[in-house]
Write a structure and sequence with these properties.
Layout lengths: L2 E3 L1 H6 L5 H11 L6 H13 L5 H14 L8 H14 L3 H13 L3 E3 L8 E2 L2 E4 L4
Helix pairs in contact: 5-6
Length: about 130
């Protein structure tokens, strides 16, 4: 079963401590991210951590080496994202992530920010830190 990693897993993997160890272990096991996750991680690393562009490129490079090619944001993804936001009450950006994952056929999405244990269109959301 292919796993998808939300941005928070990528960010925690850059830190120290228990959550960082869990995040790195999950990433080492392989999976997939989306272009949206790359963009969000870049923004968080720059804004919250004050990382310079060279560090950001190294972090993103390490992540990309550990996972499959990032999923694109397509019109199919956009349409499903809108449907999920409308029907399930997710924020648009969370719904867009979920749509990319569902369209790709992943069985699990690791995220600290969404409802642990919830299943949407066959996709299970798991908080890897509980």
């Amino acid at each position: 079963m292919k796993a998808f990693f939300d941005t928070n897993v990528i960010i925690y993997a850059q830190e120290d401590g228990r959550k960082a160890e869990i995040a790195r272990e999950r990433l080492r096991s392989g999976g997939v991210i989306s272009v949206q996750v790359v963009n969000e991680a870049t923004n968080v690393l720059r804004r919250k951590y004050g990382a310079d562009w060279d560090r950001i490129n190294r972090v993103i490079g390490r992540v990309l080496a550990a996972v499959d090619k990032p999923l694109p944001i397509t019109m199919k993804t956009y349409r499903l994202g809108v449907d999920l936001a409308r029907s399930d009450g997710f924020s648009f950006f969370d719904a867009l992530l979920l749509a990319a994952v569902i369209n790709h056929g992943c069985g699990v999405m690791y995220s600290e920010d969404m409802q642990h244990g919830r299943v949407i269109n066959g996709l299970e959301i798991r908080n890897p830190f509980v």
